[in-house]
Amino acid sequence: MKTNNTNFVTSNLRAVLGSIRQNWPVVLLAVATLAVTMAAARPLFAAGQAGTGQPGQQLDAPPAEPAPSLTISPGVIMVQAQPGQGTTQDISISNLTPVEFRFDLEAMDVAVRDGKRVFVPAGEMPGSIARTAVFSPPSVVVPPGSSATVQVTVTIPENPAMRAIVAVFRSNTKVQSPNGFAMTASLGALMTFTLSKTLQIEGSALHFDGLSQGNNLVVSESVTNTGNEPVIPKGVVAILNSTGGLVGKVPVEAMRLLPGERLEFKAEYPSTLQSGKYRALMTLEHDGTVLTTSSAFEIP
Of the candidates 126, 160, 194, which is a domain's last residue? Predict the structure, then answer.
């Protein structure tokens, strides 16, 4: 899995919801974001800059400065609870920019419709978890080079309609970008809730790309979470030759699936396969359960 401490350096002019919808599948996991890049990076070593070496001597460039960014940690919080129980979690935000930011805290429910995540204002759906969220403090001011930590407390309703919320740090601080646009920045941390042991995924037939000699083979499978709780499947793809001998294996990256969510799990075989008949087996594992799908293919 990718680390929970996520660095956000993507410029955007839209509000936080648009960014979350677009970027969620890329962030594993994870977590939703808008962020601001404050200025273009300066050259590491300017032409004609004076130095202490002899004429014509090549000098080492000074180390690159870190890109201005906003960082939230943890990016994902996984909670096991029962209806009626509450949980309190800490979320920190670091400001590695030259600008002071003020953030107001709010929560939104994460629902799944047609296999994709959607973000719903707190209290809009029956069984809203986000409606119970209480932030302490409800807003923070983060000076340049500083960080701040807030606590969020949520209580699981008796019949929750979803299994995730996003805790949003929403800023109205406007920053002038190098191209003249005024931008704001907001970030979010995903919180998932596991309330039972009803865990199940279903897969589709394997799909193959690069089925020609000289191309790298990509094996993919559409996987849907048909259970009631979040899962994080991970696995491996094995390539067998026509006699059943193992040609090689390649890992399948773990991804988080909320109930009802559907994602493409894929693996790229790094070596070129010779002409012939093969079989691919994709094995995905989560919480002690294994899903295996196999299919034959041929390299002409």
Answer: 194
